[in-house]
């Protein structure tokens, strides 16, 4: 069983926009979300949706629909900012607000958190203790390979229970595959679009051979290949727009060949197994 996770945000949330661009932006969340929900429904898959606070405010009904469909709702931050650019006080205030916002809309507790841009790094590890103070049970924000925006090299795939004076928190890193050289992400997001499908498949099979639960992630806008093309930083631009038209077909194959579930359901099973 592997974890299927969705970062619920619109196509422009991960892009730096000027005030003028923001005021004229085209909102298209549903264009990619509808086919994604269809694929999940067809394959009888429940997923974890990490909800951006700005999305929760704008589309409360979508959150209620996701809950009714049996998906897990978790927190993706209030605004799509790098955690390491926030102060601990700002992070605590914004995350607390976002968690309560989602909980008030769906009427049940939020257990999970994922930082925008996987931005819990060596610089912002302080955020994990704050999440524990806020009552969050697990975090899935650490990418164990280095990119220009995120990553903690050699963090590894192990799901760790971190203990703090305020309580404990599970850290569930994004899964990476170790090679002779540097590790590579198993799949998800731009990696899923850039890799040939066969590589994703072999990486997940490798996880199974190692008894690892792969953590897969995707965004609704990755199923919306015709969203507006605007110029921004070249590395982010390439990874954002690359091969969007194949996401749907690849996801269909992935969901047909592997069994996925929400993060909290896999974590609960592991905790139960551990205590038996
Ligand atoms: Zn995001």
Describe the 3D structure.
The chain is an alpha/beta fold and 276 residues long. The chain is built from 11 helices and 11 strands. Strands 1, 2, 3, 10 and 11 form a 5-stranded parallel β-sheet that branches. Helix 5 runs parallel beside helix 6. The longest helix is centred in the middle third of the chain and has 19 residues, at 88-106. The relative contact order is 0.18. The protein binds zinc ion. Residues 7, 9, 14, 76, 80, 116 line the site of zinc ion.
Secondary structure topology:
Blueprint: E1 2-8, H1 19-23, H2 29-42, E2 48-51, H3 53-58, H4 60-68, E3 72-75, H5 88-106, E4 112-113, H6 126-133, E5 138-139, E6 160-164, E7 167-171, E8 176-177, E9 184-185, H7 189-194, H8 197-209, E10 215-218, H9 234-241, H10 247-257, E11 260-261, H11 263-275
Helix pairs in contact: 2-10, 5-6
Bound molecules: zinc ion.
Given the structure, what is the number of helices?
11
Ligand roster: zinc ion
Sketch the major β-sheet: 5 strands, parallel
End-to-end C-alpha gap: 19 Å
Low-confidence region ranges: none
Q: What string gives the helices and strands in order?
A: EHHEHHEHEHEEEEEHHEHHEH
Strand element count: 11
Beta-strand residue fraction: 5-15%
Q: How large is the radius of gyration?
A: 18 Å
